[in-house]
Amino acid sequence: MSANTCRYRPGLRHWHPLLASRALRRKPIARTLAGERLVLFRTASGQAAALAETCPHRRMSLAAGRVQGDELVCAYHGWRFAPGGAIRCPLMPASELRHQAFQVREAHGLIWIRQATQSEDPPLPSWDSGGLALAGVAFHTVPAPLELTLDNFTEVEHTSSIHQVFGFTQPEAIEHRLELEPAATRVWNSGPQKAFPPVFNGFIDNRPGDSFANDWITTFDPLLTIYDQTWRSPKGKPRRFRLKVVMFFVPIDDTTTQLTTLVYSPKVLPGRLHRALAAPIIKAVTAHELNLDVWALAQLADLDTELNPRTLGPLDRVLLENRRRLKPAYLERV
Ligand code: FES
Ligand SMILES: [Fe+2]
Question: Last residue of a domain, which of 52, 82, 114?
């Protein structure tokens, strides 16, 4: 029986991008998703698989095992596990024992995992990249619960104090709109952009004095925010360089959240130069900015997820709305 008491366990019914496809080879690896300890492996024929980590025989971690053909072999007594959960036990050939298996898909260079339920078989999340090119995928581990991590990434008041590149010079100058739908929240912010660092000079057209607009939508099955970030010249002309950031909030356990972030931009250099030079810089700068968010969340004095409406400012209105929509998706069993 599962000992998983993670409060986000109901969220396992949604697809979550847990790791990069290329990080999964034949050597089994242990990971946790919504408190569920998993072993992931790739069979000899290349199929990605995820099983409950604990061997049902005598509790050896299956991450200590090895892949042979299309099965994972437990290191302790050699029981063999197929990706779908079928067990072959040398001393009990007639046994029909099964092990808990999770659904696995590969798309966008990522391994997606969910726990199957009888009532739902959702498609993988999809999004429109807006004709932009993928600059890279970043993974960050945040030492904070899902709610507090989401709070940080759906308000911009902190961008003037915490961020170095992407953000507003001061919160008083931010124009802000909030649109609510039953299953989504949408936020639009616009204001003066911080000065871009010299590393961008030469291949993007954004300049000091530009205005920055950050328009994002958050949906909850799975928890995902898509940011459209655009800039305009002081005369209001749209800059060519823009960013689309697709951020998945993956609950690892009660106090840890993983961000899986896909960063898209226009091709700013010709041909292969973009992939070789510009895309890594764009990804690295974005990942650096996300590290600053991780730093901020690591400084929280406690991890209480309660919000006090009396202390919330005008840019925080979305937080309570997000919490309302998060509850049925991640905190309530179906
Ligand atoms: S503990 Fe895994 S086969 Fe015995
Ligand atoms: Fe931030």
Answer: 114
pLDDT for the residue 68:
98
Q: What separation in Å is there between the alpha carbon of 186 and the centre of ligand 2?
A: 17
Nearest of 302, 296, 19, 318 to residue 142 by alpha carbon: 296
Q: Atom 4 of ligand 1 has which residue's CA nearest to it? A: 77
Within 6 A (CB) of ligand 1 lie: 55, 57-58, 60, 74, 76-77, 79
How far, in Å, are 37, 52, 70, 212, 307 from residue 182 at the CA level?
A: 32, 34, 44, 28, 21
Please tell me whether residues 107 and 153 are part of one structural domain: no
CA dist., res. 74 & res. 123, Å (int)? 32
Domain that holds residue 267: 133-331
In this structure, what DSSP letter does residue 125 have?
Answer: P
Residue 123 lies in a domain: no
CA of 38 to the centre of ligand 2 (A): 30
Tell me the best of 61, 73, 77, 87 to mutate to test the pocket of ligand 1, counting ligand atoms within 8 Å of each CB and taking the most: 77
> What's the gap in Å between 47 CA and the centre of ligand 2?
36
Among 87, 114, 141, identify where a domain stops: 114
Q: Are residues 296 and 168 part of one domain?
A: yes
Structure tokens at 299: 């400084």
- Is residue 121, in this structure, part of any structural domain at all? no
Are 314 and 227 found together in one domain? yes
pLDDT 10s digits, 193-245: 887 777 777 778 888 889 999 999 999 999 999 999 999 999 999 999 999 99
